[in-house]
Design a protein that fits this description.
Length: about 675
């Protein structure tokens, strides 16, 4: 069978063709430059030029052509991309022109004869000009063609304001000008440096400082604002963004200074401005070295490790080199995602992932018996306020009883630190979720108090089924040295977490994506907010600072109106509140109140090493009576008793539920 004949195609890359034309152009202009110099020297009259000068010029021309082409090649004037010509290429042109001019002078004087001085000067200048025309001319016409926008086409372009006339702002401006894929035109630049006002960058005016943002946005009909000040402080950035959020423009900013250092500045590097940037406080700064010393080499258990807070806890703990990290959660889908992520980023991490419920005392005993965790971060909980109002018994089972069973198992198996993740909704709660979390805090405080008093044997085990843990009818473990228990129990209380599962931000974002309306419960409702990394930093620090019995509280600054938050989100998305996206007020949900406190009036504040973190002093209550009440509450919860709120009111004296109750659970 005859094989197919192969056909060979000879192809020439486009840049080689351009290089060939450039070399031809240079061969002509390097000689034309000196001939024109003779012509200009003799008053633009060819007849006045001495014939010997023509002879010398013609004799040296072939050699000079070769010399110039070699010098140009050595200076890389044939390998640059002239569409992006810059100072580097200009430096190469100047060096090549200087070398060839000196070469021409010496060769002509040494090997041919004297020529007019103006011949050498004018020839070198003309050669440099022709060289610049061929290299910079392409970029000039490229930029000119990009800038040439007709009035009819201008309406199709997004009008941009750049804040920052420094290097980063100039990079973004040139990226917009040079890109054919970006349908944007920069109309004005803002900078607080008065010396730059009323001047231009790439023919774009610098119109003023931050006080002129609103007026300029209106004057130039700005659609987008790009914040390009990578070195700005948190306060400066927040102030500028707050002004920008009052416009109807879409906002974008540089994520970090490192991009400027790495010269990675462009429109594609800009990120959406997040609501975190508009919060009224600085980010919480933590001493990670202290956390590293606390966690490194220890076995750590995170319950609820697949959730928003739990998963971030796992990420930060994995960075601090624990001996073993155990993730415990009842929801397998999100937990599996965290498992894959951690295995990918930390292949050497000893990671154990377990599926189960904190309600199951036998399961919790088995986990602690098998792995013996030294540190426990208890993040497992039901957190959705309206859903828990409809299912109050589930809130008690999972939050209160689940916390008790986990804490008891930790205490009985030599755990060193147990950190409960609580919420500001536990303060003067009006909903069952907040009340259940307050019970969790009381569990932690009562456990710690009994241990410090040397009466840990008085802490009963709560169970609803036959137990096989070797305990008596009161839940006391037989032949166990209760005096050896040294577990420190602490709690961490914080407000709403931005971008967590079920938080208001993702809900608003989805509503905006769907064209609205954005639903706000009440125009005056306010909340404290923090970011997930901040929340996790606080939880980790609680483990290092905690001596037992404390409730750690974050100073979250001023509260934020949810209505303002919704309007800022709409503006950040490039829409106008109440015009493009409607805002509707749907009324407070069951168990919801207008504002959340961080402490009860009876609690005092003590300081810590971090000025943003405080300690709420424990409230006094009868732990023995509390254990009896909790046992009764557990039985009511598992009977799905519709009157369970009354029992919760008896235990949590600061709990004041809404009067209009639902018809119980289904």
């Amino acid at each position: 069978m005859e094989g197919k004949k192969k056909t060979f195609r000879f192809t020439i890359e486009p840049w080689r063709i351009i290089t060939a034309f450039l070399m031809i152009y240079d061969a002509i202009t390097v000689n034309a430059s000196y001939f024109l110099a003779l012509w200009i020297r003799h008053d633009l009259k060819f007849s006045l030029i001495d014939k010997i000068y023509i002879v010398y010029w013609r004799a040296f021309a072939p050699y000079y052509t070769v010399i110039c082409l070699l010098v140009y090649a050595l200076c890389r004037l044939y390998k640059s991309i002239w569409e992006y010509v810059s100072y580097t290429e200009l430096a190469g042109i100047i060096l090549a022109s200087f070398i060839t001019a000196i070469t021409h002078l010496l060769a002509m004087v040494l090997f041919y004869g004297r020529m007019p001085v103006s011949y050498f000067l004018m020839g070198a200048i003309l050669q440099f000009i022709f060289l610049c025309i061929s290299r910079f001319g392409y970029r000039f016409f490229h930029v000119l063609s990009n800038k040439r926008i007709s009035r009819e086409d201008l309406a199709k372009y997004k009008k941009v304001m750049i804040i920052g006339a420094g290097s980063a702002g100039q990079m973004i401006l040139r990226d917009i000008i040079n890109s054919k894929m970006i349908n944007e035109v920069v109309c004005c630049i803002i900078d607080d440096d008065r010396s730059k006002w009323n001047r231009y960058i790439e023919n774009v005016p610098i119109v003023g400082g931050r006080d002129d943002i609103m007026a300029s946005a209106k004057k130039y009909n700005i659609d987008k604002i790009y914040l390009a000040i990578p070195s700005a402080s948190v306060e400066e950035k927040r102030d500028i963004l707050n002004i920008c959020s009052e416009t109807d423009c879409e906002l974008k900013q540089l994520p970090g200074y490192y991009q400027f250092v790495l010269n990675q500045i462009g429109v594609s590097s800009l990120a959406d401005v997040s609501v975190e940037d508009l919060l009224g406080r600085d980010p919480i700064k933590t001493d990670l070295e202290e956390v590293f010393e606390f966690i490194s080499g220890k076995t750590v258990l995170v319950t609820g490790g697949g959730g928003s807070i739990g998963s971030e806890l796992c990420r930060q703990i994995a960075m601090h080199k624990p001996r073993q990290l155990i993730i415990f959660d009842i929801y397998e889908n999100s937990t599996y995602g965290v498992q894959l992520e951690l295995k990918n980023h930390y292949p050497d991490l000893d990671l154990v992932v377990l599926i189960g419920s904190v309600r199951d005392s036998r399961k919790m005993y088995d986990v602690f018996e098998t792995y013996r965790p030294q540190i426990v971060y208890h993040a497992a909980a039901h957190k959705h306020v309206p859903l828990m109002e409809d299912s109050p018994c589930e809130a008690i089972k999972n939050n209160a009883i689940g916390t008790y069973k986990t804490a008891f198992a930790a205490m009985m198996h030599g755990c060193e630190k147990f950190v409960l993740i609580s919420t500001d909704k536990a303060v003067n709660p009006t909903n069952i979720m907040g009340a259940s979390k307050r019970i969790c805090e009381m569990i932690i405080q009562s456990f710690d108090a009994k241990i410090k008093e040397g009466r840990a044997d008085e802490i009963p085990q709560l169970f609803t089924h036959y137990n096989d843990h070797g305990v008596d009818n009161l839940g006391r473990k037989k032949e166990f040295d209760y005096q050896s228990i040294r577990t420190d129990f602490t709690a961490v209380r914080f407000g709403n977490v931005l971008a967590s599962n079920g938080s208001v931000i993702p809900i608003f974002q989805k509503q905006i994506e769907n064209g609205g309306p954005v639903t706000v419960t009440h125009p005056d409702i306010i909340r404290y907010f923090m970011t997930i990394p901040e929340a996790v930093s606080l939880v980790l620090l609680a483990g290092t600072y905690g001596k037992g019995g404390e409730i750690f509280v974050l100073d979250m600054g001023s509260p934020v109106k949810i209505d303002t938050l919704a309007r800022n989100l709409i503006r950040l998305s490039g829409y106008r509140p109440d015009i493009d996206i409607k805002i509707e007020y749907c009324g407070l949900r069951p168990g919801e109140k207008l504002y959340e406190e961080r402490l009860m009036e009876e609690e005092g504040l003590a300081t810590t090493e971090n000025e943003m973190i405080h300690i709420g002093k424990p409230l006094e209550f009868d732990a023995g009576e509390f254990f009896v009440q909790l046992s009764e509450l557990m039985k009511m919860a598992y009977r799905n008793d519709r009157n369970i709120r009354s029992k919760v009111e008896e235990i949590v004296t600061t709990y004041h539920p809404v009067k209009e109750e639902k018809n119980g659970e289904n």
